[in-house]
Amino acid sequence: MTFHREETVLIPESDLDGMSLDTLAVRAGQLRTGQLEHSDAIFPTSSFVYTSAAQAAARFGGEEPGNIYSRFTNPTVQAFEGRIAAMEGGERAVATSSGMAAILSTCMALLKSGDHVICSRGVFGTTNVLFQKYMAKFGVETSFVSLTDLDEWSSAVRPDTRMLFIETPSNPLCEVADMEALAKLAHDNGALFVVDNCFCTPVLQRPLEHGADIVIHSATKYLDGQGRCVGGVVVGPTKLMDEVYGFLRSAGPTMSPFNAWVFHKGLETLPIRMRAHCDNALELAAWLEQQPEVERVFYAGLESHPQHALAKKQQKGFGGVLAFCLKGGREEAWKFIDATRMISITANLGDVKTTITHPATTTHGRLSPEDKSGAGITENLLRLSVGIEAVEDLKTDLHRGFQALQNASNT
Ligand SMILES: *Cc1c(COP(=O)(O)O)cnc(C)c1O
Protein backbone atom coordinates (compact mmCIF):
# COMPACT_ATOMS: atom_id res chain seq x y z
CA MET A 1 0.00 0.00 0.00
CA THR A 2 1.31 3.42 -0.81
CA PHE A 3 0.75 6.53 1.21
CA HIS A 4 -0.28 9.60 -0.66
CA ARG A 5 0.47 12.97 0.82
CA GLU A 6 -3.21 13.85 0.78
CA GLU A 7 -3.81 11.05 3.29
CA THR A 8 -1.29 12.32 5.81
CA VAL A 9 -2.65 15.09 7.95
CA LEU A 10 -1.43 17.15 10.83
CA ILE A 11 -4.43 17.21 13.12
CA PRO A 12 -5.66 20.83 13.07
CA GLU A 13 -4.08 22.91 15.82
CA SER A 14 -7.11 25.20 15.92
CA ASP A 15 -9.03 22.38 17.65
CA LEU A 16 -6.68 22.87 20.59
CA ASP A 17 -7.12 26.63 20.98
CA GLY A 18 -7.10 27.66 24.62
CA MET A 19 -6.24 24.18 25.85
CA SER A 20 -3.80 23.64 28.69
CA LEU A 21 -0.17 22.61 28.46
CA ASP A 22 -0.95 19.09 29.72
CA THR A 23 -3.27 18.63 26.76
CA LEU A 24 -0.92 20.23 24.23
CA ALA A 25 1.83 17.84 25.39
CA VAL A 26 -0.31 14.89 24.34
CA ARG A 27 -2.23 16.31 21.37
CA ALA A 28 -0.37 19.17 19.66
CA GLY A 29 1.59 18.49 16.48
CA GLN A 30 0.09 15.08 15.86
CA LEU A 31 0.50 13.53 12.48
CA ARG A 32 -1.84 10.86 11.15
CA THR A 33 -1.53 8.91 7.91
CA GLY A 34 -4.18 7.12 5.87
CA GLN A 35 -3.66 4.07 8.10
CA LEU A 36 -5.34 6.00 10.95
CA GLU A 37 -2.74 4.86 13.49
CA HIS A 38 -3.35 6.16 17.01
CA SER A 39 0.32 6.60 17.92
CA ASP A 40 2.47 8.64 15.55
CA ALA A 41 4.18 7.01 12.58
CA ILE A 42 7.92 7.47 11.97
CA PHE A 43 9.17 8.58 8.56
CA PRO A 44 12.74 7.28 8.35
CA THR A 45 13.41 8.44 4.84
CA SER A 46 16.14 10.63 3.42
CA SER A 47 14.13 11.86 0.43
CA PHE A 48 10.60 12.08 -0.92
CA VAL A 49 9.11 11.29 -4.33
CA TYR A 50 6.82 13.34 -6.55
CA THR A 51 3.75 12.38 -8.50
CA SER A 52 5.17 14.05 -11.63
CA ALA A 53 8.11 15.94 -13.04
CA ALA A 54 6.03 19.09 -12.85
CA GLN A 55 5.43 18.55 -9.14
CA ALA A 56 9.14 17.99 -8.55
CA ALA A 57 9.86 21.28 -10.30
CA ALA A 58 7.19 23.07 -8.29
CA ARG A 59 8.56 21.71 -5.02
CA PHE A 60 12.12 22.68 -5.87
CA GLY A 61 10.99 26.06 -7.08
CA GLY A 62 9.18 26.69 -3.81
CA GLU A 63 5.82 27.18 -5.58
CA GLU A 64 4.36 24.14 -3.87
CA PRO A 65 4.99 23.37 -0.21
CA GLY A 66 5.98 19.82 0.70
CA ASN A 67 8.85 17.53 1.52
CA ILE A 68 11.93 17.21 -0.67
CA TYR A 69 14.74 15.90 1.47
CA SER A 70 15.07 15.23 5.22
CA ARG A 71 17.85 17.76 5.72
CA PHE A 72 15.13 20.31 4.87
CA THR A 73 11.94 18.86 6.30
CA ASN A 74 10.71 15.53 7.60
CA PRO A 75 7.17 14.80 8.82
CA THR A 76 8.25 13.20 12.12
CA VAL A 77 10.60 16.08 12.86
CA GLN A 78 7.82 18.55 12.02
CA ALA A 79 5.44 16.77 14.37
CA PHE A 80 7.91 17.20 17.24
CA GLU A 81 8.53 20.83 16.25
CA GLY A 82 4.80 21.56 16.23
CA ARG A 83 4.31 20.05 19.68
CA ILE A 84 7.20 21.82 21.41
CA ALA A 85 6.31 25.14 19.74
CA ALA A 86 2.76 24.83 21.09
CA MET A 87 4.07 23.99 24.56
CA GLU A 88 6.51 26.92 24.67
CA GLY A 89 3.90 29.26 23.20
CA GLY A 90 6.16 30.10 20.23
CA GLU A 91 5.25 30.54 16.57
CA ARG A 92 7.77 28.09 15.20
CA ALA A 93 10.28 25.52 16.42
CA VAL A 94 13.35 24.21 14.59
CA ALA A 95 14.72 20.85 15.75
CA THR A 96 18.47 20.18 15.72
CA SER A 97 20.81 17.22 16.12
CA SER A 98 21.79 18.19 19.70
CA GLY A 99 21.35 20.94 22.25
CA MET A 100 24.73 22.35 21.21
CA ALA A 101 23.60 22.37 17.56
CA ALA A 102 20.56 24.41 18.67
CA ILE A 103 22.82 27.03 20.27
CA LEU A 104 25.28 26.99 17.36
CA SER A 105 22.51 27.31 14.76
CA THR A 106 20.97 30.24 16.63
CA CYS A 107 24.31 32.03 16.73
CA MET A 108 25.22 31.30 13.12
CA ALA A 109 21.82 32.42 11.87
CA LEU A 110 21.43 35.58 13.93
CA LEU A 111 24.95 36.90 14.65
CA LYS A 112 27.72 38.14 12.42
CA SER A 113 31.36 39.01 12.73
CA GLY A 114 31.77 42.11 14.92
CA ASP A 115 28.77 41.33 17.12
CA HIS A 116 29.05 41.07 20.89
CA VAL A 117 27.31 38.57 23.17
CA ILE A 118 26.77 38.73 26.93
CA CYS A 119 26.41 35.34 28.55
CA SER A 120 25.84 34.29 32.14
CA ARG A 121 28.89 32.75 33.77
CA GLY A 122 27.33 29.54 35.01
CA VAL A 123 26.15 28.19 31.63
CA PHE A 124 26.65 24.59 30.49
CA GLY A 125 30.41 24.04 30.06
CA THR A 126 30.29 23.34 26.33
CA THR A 127 28.20 26.47 25.73
CA ASN A 128 31.06 28.35 27.32
CA VAL A 129 33.55 26.68 24.96
CA LEU A 130 31.35 27.37 21.93
CA PHE A 131 31.27 31.10 22.67
CA GLN A 132 34.80 31.50 23.98
CA LYS A 133 36.68 29.38 21.46
CA TYR A 134 34.61 28.93 18.31
CA MET A 135 32.36 31.98 18.01
CA ALA A 136 35.41 34.11 18.87
CA LYS A 137 37.21 32.66 15.81
CA PHE A 138 34.50 34.19 13.65
CA GLY A 139 34.70 37.62 15.26
CA VAL A 140 31.90 37.27 17.79
CA GLU A 141 33.15 38.35 21.20
CA THR A 142 31.47 37.19 24.41
CA SER A 143 31.52 38.77 27.88
CA PHE A 144 30.63 36.57 30.85
CA VAL A 145 28.74 38.08 33.79
CA SER A 146 26.99 36.94 36.94
CA LEU A 147 23.54 35.49 36.23
CA THR A 148 21.92 37.40 39.07
CA ASP A 149 23.77 40.75 39.15
CA LEU A 150 21.82 43.15 36.90
CA ASP A 151 24.45 45.88 37.28
CA GLU A 152 27.06 43.58 35.78
CA TRP A 153 24.76 42.95 32.80
CA SER A 154 24.12 46.69 32.26
CA SER A 155 27.82 47.54 32.49
CA ALA A 156 28.69 44.82 29.97
CA VAL A 157 26.37 46.23 27.27
CA ARG A 158 28.21 47.80 24.31
CA PRO A 159 26.94 49.43 21.12
CA ASP A 160 27.67 46.17 19.24
CA THR A 161 25.88 43.90 21.76
CA ARG A 162 23.43 41.74 19.82
CA MET A 163 22.57 38.88 22.17
CA LEU A 164 22.04 38.21 25.87
CA PHE A 165 22.23 34.48 26.63
CA ILE A 166 21.28 32.74 29.90
CA GLU A 167 20.31 29.50 31.56
CA THR A 168 17.91 29.79 34.49
CA PRO A 169 18.03 28.11 36.96
CA SER A 170 21.78 27.67 36.64
CA ASN A 171 23.64 24.38 36.83
CA PRO A 172 24.49 23.18 39.45
CA LEU A 173 23.87 25.96 41.99
CA CYS A 174 20.25 26.70 40.97
CA GLU A 175 20.68 30.50 40.76
CA VAL A 176 17.65 32.19 39.18
CA ALA A 177 17.79 35.09 36.71
CA ASP A 178 15.21 37.87 36.51
CA MET A 179 14.07 37.25 32.93
CA GLU A 180 11.86 40.32 32.61
CA ALA A 181 14.66 42.65 33.66
CA LEU A 182 17.13 41.03 31.26
CA ALA A 183 14.60 41.09 28.41
CA LYS A 184 14.13 44.83 28.95
CA LEU A 185 17.87 45.42 29.01
CA ALA A 186 18.29 43.45 25.80
CA HIS A 187 15.45 45.19 23.99
CA ASP A 188 16.46 48.69 25.15
CA ASN A 189 19.77 47.98 23.46
CA GLY A 190 18.59 46.30 20.27
CA ALA A 191 19.76 42.85 21.35
CA LEU A 192 18.05 39.46 21.35
CA PHE A 193 17.34 37.74 24.65
CA VAL A 194 17.94 33.98 24.44
CA VAL A 195 17.06 31.54 27.24
CA ASP A 196 18.29 27.94 27.46
CA ASN A 197 15.20 26.42 29.14
CA CYS A 198 16.67 22.94 29.60
CA PHE A 199 16.25 22.79 33.38
CA CYS A 200 12.64 23.97 33.66
CA THR A 201 11.10 22.89 30.35
CA PRO A 202 7.89 24.65 29.26
CA VAL A 203 6.05 22.78 32.01
CA LEU A 204 7.70 24.90 34.71
CA GLN A 205 8.65 28.06 32.84
CA ARG A 206 7.80 29.64 29.49
CA PRO A 207 10.50 32.24 28.85
CA LEU A 208 8.72 33.73 25.81
CA GLU A 209 6.03 34.96 28.24
CA HIS A 210 8.74 36.72 30.26
CA GLY A 211 10.16 38.63 27.30
CA ALA A 212 12.62 36.14 25.81
CA ASP A 213 12.92 36.24 22.02
CA ILE A 214 14.22 32.70 21.67
CA VAL A 215 14.06 29.54 23.78
CA ILE A 216 16.64 26.79 23.39
CA HIS A 217 16.51 23.20 24.60
CA SER A 218 18.79 20.28 24.89
CA ALA A 219 16.02 17.75 24.18
CA THR A 220 18.50 15.14 25.42
CA LYS A 221 17.51 15.97 28.98
CA TYR A 222 13.92 16.26 30.27
CA LEU A 223 12.15 16.36 26.87
CA ASP A 224 13.24 12.79 26.26
CA GLY A 225 13.42 12.11 29.98
CA GLN A 226 14.65 8.57 29.66
CA GLY A 227 18.18 9.09 28.40
CA ARG A 228 17.73 7.58 24.94
CA CYS A 229 18.60 10.23 22.34
CA VAL A 230 20.65 13.37 21.78
CA GLY A 231 18.79 16.31 20.24
CA GLY A 232 17.91 19.98 20.53
CA VAL A 233 15.36 22.56 19.50
CA VAL A 234 15.06 26.33 19.04
CA VAL A 235 11.67 28.06 19.50
CA GLY A 236 10.64 31.63 18.71
CA PRO A 237 8.89 33.97 16.28
CA THR A 238 8.64 32.81 12.67
CA LYS A 239 10.80 35.67 11.42
CA LEU A 240 13.77 34.57 13.54
CA MET A 241 13.11 30.84 13.19
CA ASP A 242 13.07 31.11 9.41
CA GLU A 243 16.67 32.31 9.67
CA VAL A 244 17.62 29.44 12.01
CA TYR A 245 15.92 26.98 9.66
CA GLY A 246 17.81 28.49 6.73
CA PHE A 247 21.11 27.84 8.48
CA LEU A 248 20.14 24.28 9.35
CA ARG A 249 19.02 23.50 5.82
CA SER A 250 22.39 24.68 4.49
CA ALA A 251 24.70 23.49 7.25
CA GLY A 252 22.93 20.25 8.12
CA PRO A 253 22.77 19.71 11.92
CA THR A 254 19.20 18.44 11.59
CA MET A 255 17.37 16.03 13.89
CA SER A 256 16.91 12.43 12.75
CA PRO A 257 13.31 11.18 12.35
CA PHE A 258 13.88 8.41 14.88
CA ASN A 259 15.09 10.82 17.54
CA ALA A 260 12.25 13.21 16.74
CA TRP A 261 9.77 10.39 17.32
CA VAL A 262 11.32 9.57 20.71
CA PHE A 263 11.21 13.23 21.77
CA HIS A 264 7.68 13.65 20.44
CA LYS A 265 6.51 10.73 22.56
CA GLY A 266 8.62 11.96 25.47
CA LEU A 267 6.71 15.25 25.50
CA GLU A 268 3.46 13.37 26.15
CA THR A 269 4.60 12.47 29.66
CA LEU A 270 6.66 15.62 30.31
CA PRO A 271 4.06 17.40 32.51
CA ILE A 272 3.55 14.45 34.85
CA ARG A 273 7.26 13.65 34.91
CA MET A 274 8.19 17.23 35.77
CA ARG A 275 5.72 17.30 38.65
CA ALA A 276 7.19 14.06 40.00
CA HIS A 277 10.78 15.38 39.61
CA CYS A 278 9.82 18.60 41.44
CA ASP A 279 8.03 16.83 44.30
CA ASN A 280 10.93 14.46 44.89
CA ALA A 281 13.56 17.19 44.60
CA LEU A 282 11.77 19.51 47.03
CA GLU A 283 11.38 16.76 49.58
CA LEU A 284 15.01 15.65 49.24
CA ALA A 285 16.27 19.25 49.44
CA ALA A 286 14.42 19.81 52.73
CA TRP A 287 15.62 16.44 54.04
CA LEU A 288 19.24 17.10 53.05
CA GLU A 289 19.13 20.47 54.80
CA GLN A 290 18.51 18.63 58.08
CA GLN A 291 21.42 16.20 57.81
CA PRO A 292 24.30 16.99 60.16
CA GLU A 293 26.90 16.11 57.46
CA VAL A 294 25.45 18.70 55.05
CA GLU A 295 26.84 22.21 55.08
CA ARG A 296 24.45 23.80 52.57
CA VAL A 297 21.75 22.88 50.05
CA PHE A 298 21.17 24.77 46.78
CA TYR A 299 17.59 24.51 45.54
CA ALA A 300 15.30 27.39 44.58
CA GLY A 301 12.36 25.68 46.29
CA LEU A 302 13.92 26.22 49.72
CA GLU A 303 13.13 29.41 51.59
CA SER A 304 16.85 29.66 52.35
CA HIS A 305 17.52 30.18 48.60
CA PRO A 306 18.35 33.83 47.78
CA GLN A 307 16.05 33.91 44.72
CA HIS A 308 13.24 31.82 46.18
CA ALA A 309 10.64 34.58 45.67
CA LEU A 310 11.72 35.23 42.08
CA ALA A 311 11.67 31.50 41.27
CA LYS A 312 8.15 31.30 42.70
CA LYS A 313 7.05 34.17 40.46
CA GLN A 314 8.67 32.90 37.25
CA GLN A 315 8.35 29.14 37.63
CA LYS A 316 5.50 26.74 38.26
CA GLY A 317 7.87 24.41 40.12
CA PHE A 318 11.51 24.41 41.18
CA GLY A 319 12.82 21.64 38.96
CA GLY A 320 14.57 18.33 39.50
CA VAL A 321 18.18 19.41 39.96
CA LEU A 322 19.68 20.32 43.31
CA ALA A 323 23.17 20.63 44.73
CA PHE A 324 24.58 20.33 48.22
CA CYS A 325 27.88 20.80 50.03
CA LEU A 326 29.04 18.18 52.49
CA LYS A 327 31.18 19.15 55.45
CA GLY A 328 34.69 18.31 54.23
CA GLY A 329 36.27 18.17 50.79
CA ARG A 330 36.78 15.91 47.80
CA GLU A 331 37.45 12.85 49.95
CA GLU A 332 34.10 13.13 51.70
CA ALA A 333 32.28 13.90 48.43
CA TRP A 334 33.72 10.85 46.67
CA LYS A 335 33.16 8.62 49.69
CA PHE A 336 29.52 9.70 49.72
CA ILE A 337 29.04 8.99 46.00
CA ASP A 338 30.75 5.61 46.21
CA ALA A 339 28.53 4.51 49.10
CA THR A 340 25.29 4.91 47.11
CA ARG A 341 24.19 1.73 45.38
CA MET A 342 21.08 2.60 43.38
CA ILE A 343 21.58 6.18 42.21
CA SER A 344 23.57 6.34 38.95
CA ILE A 345 27.01 7.92 39.02
CA THR A 346 26.85 9.90 35.78
CA ALA A 347 27.01 13.49 34.64
CA ASN A 348 23.76 13.28 32.69
CA LEU A 349 20.62 14.93 34.03
CA GLY A 350 16.92 15.15 33.33
CA ASP A 351 16.41 11.40 33.44
CA VAL A 352 13.68 9.51 35.31
CA LYS A 353 16.61 7.78 37.04
CA THR A 354 18.30 9.81 39.77
CA THR A 355 21.93 10.67 39.02
CA ILE A 356 24.74 11.95 41.23
CA THR A 357 27.72 13.99 40.06
CA HIS A 358 30.86 15.53 41.54
CA PRO A 359 30.97 18.72 39.42
CA ALA A 360 34.51 19.80 40.43
CA THR A 361 36.07 16.69 38.84
CA THR A 362 33.59 16.01 36.01
CA THR A 363 31.27 18.59 34.41
CA HIS A 364 33.33 21.53 35.66
CA GLY A 365 36.70 19.72 35.79
CA ARG A 366 38.14 21.75 32.91
CA LEU A 367 37.71 25.07 34.71
CA SER A 368 40.80 26.67 36.25
CA PRO A 369 40.87 26.72 40.08
CA GLU A 370 40.00 30.45 40.00
CA ASP A 371 37.06 29.93 37.62
CA LYS A 372 35.85 27.03 39.77
CA SER A 373 35.82 29.06 42.93
CA GLY A 374 34.26 32.01 41.06
CA ALA A 375 31.46 29.69 39.92
CA GLY A 376 31.05 28.20 43.41
CA ILE A 377 32.17 24.73 42.29
CA THR A 378 33.84 23.60 45.51
CA GLU A 379 35.40 20.17 46.13
CA ASN A 380 32.67 19.28 48.65
CA LEU A 381 29.81 20.03 46.21
CA LEU A 382 27.56 17.27 44.85
CA ARG A 383 24.80 17.56 42.28
CA LEU A 384 21.71 15.41 42.21
CA SER A 385 19.41 15.20 39.23
CA VAL A 386 16.43 13.82 41.08
CA GLY A 387 14.47 11.16 39.22
CA ILE A 388 11.00 9.79 39.75
CA GLU A 389 11.81 6.76 41.94
CA ALA A 390 10.00 6.57 45.30
CA VAL A 391 11.48 9.36 47.40
CA GLU A 392 11.81 7.06 50.42
CA ASP A 393 14.07 4.77 48.39
CA LEU A 394 16.19 7.72 47.31
CA LYS A 395 16.61 8.68 50.96
CA THR A 396 17.60 5.09 51.76
CA ASP A 397 20.30 5.19 49.10
CA LEU A 398 21.56 8.64 50.10
CA HIS A 399 21.56 7.52 53.72
CA ARG A 400 24.24 4.98 52.74
CA GLY A 401 26.39 7.97 51.85
CA PHE A 402 25.82 9.63 55.22
CA GLN A 403 26.48 6.32 56.97
CA ALA A 404 29.84 6.00 55.19
CA LEU A 405 30.82 9.50 56.36
CA GLN A 406 29.80 8.67 59.93
CA ASN A 407 31.75 5.39 59.88
CA ALA A 408 34.83 7.21 58.56
CA SER A 409 34.68 9.86 61.28
CA ASN A 410 34.24 7.21 63.99
CA THR A 411 37.40 5.30 63.10
C1 LIG B 1 23.15 19.23 28.01
C2 LIG B 1 22.96 20.69 27.88
C3 LIG B 1 23.23 21.37 26.69
C4 LIG B 1 23.82 20.68 25.49
O1 LIG B 1 22.94 19.76 24.96
P1 LIG B 1 23.40 18.46 24.12
O2 LIG B 1 22.10 17.85 23.74
O3 LIG B 1 24.24 17.63 25.03
O4 LIG B 1 24.17 18.95 22.96
C5 LIG B 1 22.97 22.72 26.62
N1 LIG B 1 22.47 23.39 27.68
C6 LIG B 1 22.20 22.76 28.85
C7 LIG B 1 21.66 23.55 29.98
C8 LIG B 1 22.44 21.40 29.00
O5 LIG B 1 22.20 20.81 30.17
UniProtKB/TrEMBL annotation:
InterPro entries cross-referenced by the UniProt entry: Cys/Met-Metab_PyrdxlP-dep_enz, Cys_met_metab_PP, O-succ-hSer_sulfhydrylase, PyrdxlP-dep_Trfase, PyrdxlP-dep_Trfase_major, PyrdxlP-dep_Trfase_small
GO biological process terms on file: 'de novo' L-methionine biosynthetic process; homocysteine biosynthetic process; transsulfuration
Top EC class of this enzyme: transferase
Obligatory cofactor(s): pyridoxal 5'-phosphate
Molecular function in Gene Ontology: carbon-sulfur lyase activity; pyridoxal phosphate binding; transferase activity, transferring alkyl or aryl (other than methyl) groups
Signal peptide: none
Superkingdom classification of source: Bacteria
Catalysed reactions, semicolon-separated: O-succinyl-L-homoserine + hydrogen sulfide = L-homocysteine + succinate
Pathway this chain belongs to: Amino-acid biosynthesis; L-methionine biosynthesis via de novo pathway; L-homocysteine from O-succinyl-L-homoserine: step 1/1
UniProt entry keywords in alphabetical sequence: Amino-acid biosynthesis, Methionine biosynthesis, Pyridoxal phosphate, Transferase
Transmembrane domains' residue ranges: none
Keyword Transferase among record annotations: yes
GO CC annotation terms, alphabetical: cytoplasm
EC number: 2.5.1.-
In-chain residues carrying the UniProt-annotated modification N6-(pyridoxal phosphate)lysine: 221
Keyword Amino-acid biosynthesis applies: yes
Subunit structure: Homotetramer.
NCBIfam families: O_suc_HS_sulf (TIGR01325), PRK08133.1 (NF006003)
HAMAP family for the chain: MetZ (MF_02056)
Family stated for the protein in its record: Belongs to the trans-sulfuration enzymes family. MetZ subfamily.
PANTHER family linked to this entry: CYSTATHIONINE GAMMA-LYASE, TRANS-SULFURATION ENZYME FAMILY MEMBER
UniProt function note: Catalyzes the formation of L-homocysteine from O-succinyl-L-homoserine (OSHS) and hydrogen sulfide.
Record protein name field: O-succinylhomoserine sulfhydrylase
Naturally occurring in which organism (per UniProt): Marinobacter antarcticus
Lineage of producing organism: Bacteria, Pseudomonadati, Pseudomonadota, Gammaproteobacteria, Pseudomonadales
Gene assigned in the entry: metZ
